[in-house]
């Protein structure tokens, strides 16, 4: 670890108390260059490390992450305000990606065809790119960094991580454990700061690949800037995820899953269900949904009765409050209003209670914008076709779900819907790591997605060899003679 010589520091506060828990240094231009240079120097040797040895590093790392799982989750809870259960899920989903990276030998196998012409063979290899960059958001400070650097490094690259300046303690702990697992010097670099640091990494001549998760505006800036400088970029952006509820669905399953997926993690996740589309008579369940949501309340990370924690900062809370007021002013019916939520013993927390709207239209800002809070809006339609048309008309394409007892309805929905991650009777369709996280449309800028096979393709370049050898060149000798026909 290198102590920064910066003169710019960012305060890091506990979202439940506003207590100052750290001062974050904004890396200087020279320090960012040093980090990239160290990663570039490490790449020269790391790219030659056998794939089995790279896999063994990941095996040691995932064992350490499991050993320290609860400690990381506790730190993450202080960092973000998440409940302990939410924090443990954040850590575990990251560990699953590291486990996937342990399979790098089979994941990076090339292709071979013998005799593409007479005595000519063709085969391909996957080779690493160099210094890859990851820019990660506040809402999953364990899972999303672990989406990126383990896969990139297992592929033979080195990595520079720029985590969110709002909760940097968890990513730093992940880096410490990676070093403890035996990672060579320079393999993983962590730099801190804001837009200036990001922009420097985007244009640096020695960073050929950029991974990002965050808001739409920033994702588009990163994609445009990175590709303008001839880099490959995967930029995961915002979402407006719909759950379609058919009248034949199991009512209690629908209500339970809608509550958890809309207010869990205080709604601060790109796979939260923020729109419920009730088809036909399913709208009769909305009052029961309201009653179930009202039972879930926020609280401190170690409160076993808390359903979720606070919003990340006061500015995020003010933004959600603004959108709630805009929804009321536009004519939406607010069935449950969490605007004035308070938590005993934590008067300064960024609290917001569950909020439910009915009679929402697609023109309203509470429908058009990603709220990123514990707010669920409901729309009512007459048919499955109408629901599909509504979802497909929305510019986002991150995730969606349908709840139904009809296989035909589910088949029609999964086939016709223009969204990358689809759930059937599950609310948040985040794929396991042996698949890829496949957001579409305005929710993603790029070609290859995170983890799974697509991550290997993103973090490597394919080299194809066509080879021909002449049998007349085989050396003759006592033990090397052959009989040629």
Describe this structure in words.
The chain is α/β, with parallel strands linked by helices and 485 residues long. Helix content is 38%, strand content 21%. The protein has 16 helices and 20 strands. It has helices at 29-46, 51-67, 69-80, 84-101, 104-107, 143-154, 169-180, 195-203, 216-228, 251-263, 286-294, 314-329, 365-368, 384-393, 407-416, 452-458; strands at residues 9-13, 20-25, 112-117, 120-128, 131-135, 158-162, 188-190, 209-213, 232-236, 241-245, 273-279, 333-336, 355-358, 375-381, 396-397, 399-403, 421-424, 440-441, 444-445, 460-468. It has a 7-stranded mixed β-sheet with strand order 12-13-14-11-10-16-17, with helices on both faces. The chain has a 6-stranded mixed β-sheet with strand order 7-6-5-8-9-19, with helices on both faces. Helix 6 (143-154) links the parallel strand 5 (131-135) and strand 6 (158-162). Helix 3 (69-80) crosses helix 4, helix 3 (69-80) packs antiparallel against helix 7 and helix 4 runs parallel beside helix 6 (143-154). The longest helix has 18 residues, at 29-46. The chain is globular and about 90 Å long. The protein starts with 8 loop residues before the first strand and ends in a 17-residue tail after the last strand. The model has no long low-confidence stretch (mean pLDDT 94).
**Which parts are unreliable, with pLDDT below 50 for 5 consecutive residues or more?**
none
Percent of residues in helices:
25-40%
Main sheet overview: 7 strands, mixed
Strand content: 15-25%
The gross shape turns out to be globular
Distance between the termini: 66 Å
- Helices, by number, come to 16
Q: What is the overall pLDDT average?
A: 94
The oligomeric state of the chains shown is single chain
Strand order of the largest sheet: 12-13-14-11-10-16-17
Rg, nearest Å: 25 Å
Count the E strands.
20
- How would you classify the helix and strand content by structural class? alpha/beta
Protein name: methylmalonate-semialdehyde dehydrogenase (CoA acylating)
Family: Belongs to the aldehyde dehydrogenase family.
Enzyme class: oxidoreductase
Pfam family, one: Aldedh
């Amino acid at each position: 670890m290198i102590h920064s010589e910066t003169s710019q520091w960012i305060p890091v506060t506990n979202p439940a108390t506003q207590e100052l828990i750290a001062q974050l240094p904004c890396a200087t231009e020279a320090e960012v260059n040093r980090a990239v240079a160290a990663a570039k120097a490490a790449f020269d040797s790391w790219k030659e490390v056998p794939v089995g040895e790279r896999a063994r590093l990941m095996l040691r790392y995932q064992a350490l992450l499991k050993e320290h799982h609860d400690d990381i989750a506790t730190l993450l809870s202080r960092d973000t305000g998440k409940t302990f259960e939410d924090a443990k899920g954040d850590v575990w989903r990251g560990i699953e990606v590291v486990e996937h990276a342990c399979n790098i030998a089979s994941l990076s196998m090339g292709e071979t065809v013998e005799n593409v012409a007479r005595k000519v063979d063709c085969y391909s290899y996957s080779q690493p790119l160099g210094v890859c960059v990851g820019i990660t958001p506040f809402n999953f400070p364990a899972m999303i960094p672990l989406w990126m650097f383990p896969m990139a490094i297992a592929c033979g690259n080195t990595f520079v991580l720029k985590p969110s300046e709002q909760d940097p303690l968890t990513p730093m702990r992940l880096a410490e454990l990676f070093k403890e697992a035996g990672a060579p010097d320079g393999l993983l670099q962590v730099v801190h700061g804001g837009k200036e640091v990001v922009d420097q990494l985007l244009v640096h001549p020695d960073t050929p690949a950029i991974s990002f998760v965050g808001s739409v505006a920033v994702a588009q800036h990163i994609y445009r800037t990175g590709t303008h400088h001839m880099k490959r970029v995967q930029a995961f952006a915002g979402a407006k995820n719909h759950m379609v509820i058919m009248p034949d669905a199991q009512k209690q399953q629908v209500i339970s899953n809608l509550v958890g997926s809309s207010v869990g993690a205080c709604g601060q996740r790109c796979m939260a269900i923020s729109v419920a589309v009730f088809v036909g008579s399913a709208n009769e369940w909305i009052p029961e949904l309201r009653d179930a949501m009202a039972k879930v309340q926020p609280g401190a990370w170690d409160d076993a009765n808390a359903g979720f924690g606070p919003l990340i900062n006061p500015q995020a809370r003010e933004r959600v409050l603004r959108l709630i007021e805009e929804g009321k002013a536009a004519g939406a019916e607010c069935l449950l209003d969490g605007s004035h939520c308070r938590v005993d013993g934590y008067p300064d927390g960024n609290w917001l209670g569950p909020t439910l709207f009915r009679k929402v239209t697609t023109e309203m800002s509470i429908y058009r914008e990603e709220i990123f809070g514990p707010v669920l809006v409901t729309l009512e339609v007459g048919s499955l076709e109408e629901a599909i048309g509504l979802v497909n008309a929305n510019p986002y394409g991150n995730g969606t779900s349908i709840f139904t007892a009809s296989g035909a309805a589910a088949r029609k929905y999964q086939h016709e819907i223009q969204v990358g991650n689809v759930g059937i009777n599950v609310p948040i369709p985040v794929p396991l790591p042996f698949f890829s996280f496949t957001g579409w449309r305005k929710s993603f800028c790029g070609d290859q997605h995170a983890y799974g096979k697509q991550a290997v393709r993103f973090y490597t370049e394919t080299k194809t060899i066509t080879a021909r050898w002449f049998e007349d060149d085989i050396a003759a000798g006592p033990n090397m003679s052959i009989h040629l026909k």
